[in-house]
Write a structure and sequence with these properties.
Length: 279
């Protein structure tokens, strides 16, 4: 049985869609799943539920402005759209769902991972950790070239367009072109969000496939070295493209669990070291 799609107003113009994975574990961190640049709740497949089940943690999976069941885009997208997501829409979603006091684990894919990094930089207080899968923190030509190819395929292949329509309905064109036209616009050439990284205090687990057609290992290297937490770690996966959580799901889940266990154990150890002795 499919989980119910819920809706929440962010402001007078925008309503977002979300699903909750309720493990009855509100005292522990909440996993927040942030989808890719052409993604939606459904395109995560079973990954969020499987990760929540394995960790026994609650989850929040949501669709951003312009995607899936959420309000369709009402204006032209600008090159700072990821900053807006991390600085406005995600904080408003957390606030409106009354989750501001909840410890969060951000799990992002592609654009969603970039947004997770921005949010963790701006609102570090309640971030337990960040799982960054195939994030971009600066523009690379490999990404632009791949999106140009994707755009040509979308325009010439009805089958590809129909595959997106399953997830984005009657605003598929606006969703697709907002993404593709922004990334391939000349003004996006100098796009860079590396300045956010030094302010991220939470540990980051950065994952990428060696065969990712949208980015190189330089992305994960920047993420783990330019943010300060000593527990930061990267995982490069052989024979894997842009979607490690789908293409190498068992491995990715096991490695996320391993990372979570490691930082949780480290936190408990540090807390014990700071306890005052009983006299």
């Amino acid at each position: 049985m499919e989980k119910q799609i819920n809706f929440i107003a962010i402001d007078s113009k925008v309503t977002l869609a979300y699903q909750l994975i309720d493990k009855q574990n509100s005292a522990k961190p909440l996993l927040v799943f942030l989808h890719e640049g052409l993604g939606s709740i459904a395109q995560w497949k079973k990954f969020p539920e499987m990760l929540c089940n394995t960790l026994n943690l609650d989850g929040l999976v949501y669709e951003r402005y312009g995607y899936g069941h959420a309000t369709s885009l009402q204006e032209e997208r600008t090159s700072d759209y990821l900053d807006v997501e991390g600085n406005y829409f995600l904080p408003k979603l957390i606030e409106n769902l009354q989750l501001t006091n909840r410890e969060l684990i951000l799990v992002g894919h592609s654009d969603g991972a970039s947004i997770a990094l921005i949010y963790a930089s701006l609102f570090p207080k309640n971030i337990k950790m960040v799982v960054s899968m195939a994030a971009h923190v600066f523009n690379e030509q490999i990404s632009v070239d791949s999106i140009i190819k994707l755009k040509k395929a979308y325009q010439s292949n009805d089958k590809l367009k129909k595959s997106f329509e399953k997830y984005h309905f009657d605003h598929t064109d606006s969703t697709f072109y907002a993404f593709a036209n922004t990334i391939t616009h000349p003004s996006f050439k100098e796009w860079n969000i590396e300045h956010y990284l030094p302010q991220i205090t939470a540990p980051i687990f950065a994952i990428q496939g060696f065969d990712d057609e949208y980015g190189t290992e330089l992305q994960v290297d920047a993420i783990v070295t330019k943010s300060p937490n000593k527990a930061n770690s990267k995982l490069m996966i052989k024979n894997c493209g842009h979607s490690p959580h789908l293409q190498m799901q068992p491995l990715v889940i096991s490695k996320i669990v391993e990372f979570y266990t490691k930082i949780t154990s480290s936190t408990i150890k540090n807390e014990k070291q700071h306890e005052q002795p009983t006299l």
